[in-house]
Amino acid sequence: MRRPLLMLVPTLKAAALAAVLAPVLALAPAALGSGARAAEGHDVIHIPDTRFSFDGIFGTFDRASAQRGFQVYKEVCSACHSMRQLSYRHLTGIGLNPAQIAALASQFQVQDGPNDNGEMFERPARPSDHFRRPFANDAAARAANNGALPPDLSVMVKAREGGADYLHALLVGYEEPPPGITVMEGMHYNKYFPGHQIAMAPPLNTEGQVTYADGTKATVDQMATDVATFLAWAAEPELEQRRAMGVRMIIFLTILGGLAYAVKRKVWADLH
């Protein structure tokens, strides 16, 4: 009697395993079909590698490019997009000196108060102030942009998959829609934007749209590269310090590991 019971054990195990895997196997064709559709569909977007100076473990921010990028943001992007996580004093990180920052901040009016009469008032911005918002509130921003809310750009590089490469591609990716593609009213075709239809009109559309103070030729690609560099710095200004600390820690741990191995060999040498 014991032998037949033992023979049933593998059968019972197989039945239990089949019961567990049945839901997974049932969903497998749908999952494979979905993967196949994604692989052969037109929604797979390949973002080109721009090769920024800050790429890689030893990469650093190009300060000249970041300063030009701030100029692009100030003269073009800031008309719609805020950067509320940054203060003017933070621009020392891209190489501006305190006098330049004070002069730059004073060009903007910010709301302050209340004063002694309990009223709000406007004053020239100080280096400690946050970047001025282009609109008083989100409702005003939507009203000025056909219902679309321009996102804050403070950490946009970290918020979008692809980071700076994606932002650069987005800025240079506007083009006429392919034959057979209908763009909805108020939308624009962009080959790198998910769905390819974006409410934002091409912000960088003309060579020389910005006149760089250092004489760099302001092509659309150059302006896109510079503003993406500035936004990458704004999203992670401590990037260089963090990488330098990581390299120092690797060197320290390598030396420590070598010393520990040498001590181990010395301590255990007499036991061989």
From TrEMBL:
Give start and end of each Cytochrome c domain: 64-235
An example Gene Ontology CC term for this record: membrane
- How does the cofactor attach, per the note? Binds 1 heme c group covalently per subunit.
Task: Report a single Gene Ontology molecular function.
Answer: metal ion binding
Q: Which InterPro entries match?
A: Cyt_c-like_dom (IPR009056), Cyt_c-like_dom_sf (IPR036909), Cyt_c1 (IPR002326), Cyt_c1_TM_anchor_C (IPR021157)
- Residues recorded as binding heme c, renumbered to this chain, are 77, 80-81, 200
Q: Which cofactor does it need?
A: heme c
Q: Which domain of life is it from?
A: Bacteria
Gene3D superfamilies on file: Cytochrome c-like domain, Cytochrome c1, transmembrane anchor, C-terminal
Which keywords belong to this entry? Answer: Electron transport, Heme, Iron, Membrane, Metal-binding, Respiratory chain, Signal, Transmembrane, Transmembrane helix, Transport
**Compartments in which it is found:** Membrane
Q: Which family does it belong to?
A: Belongs to the cytochrome c family.
| PANTHER family in the cross-refs | CYTOCHROME C1, CYTOCHROME C1, HEME PROTEIN, MITOCHONDRIAL
Q: What is this protein called?
A: Cytochrome c1
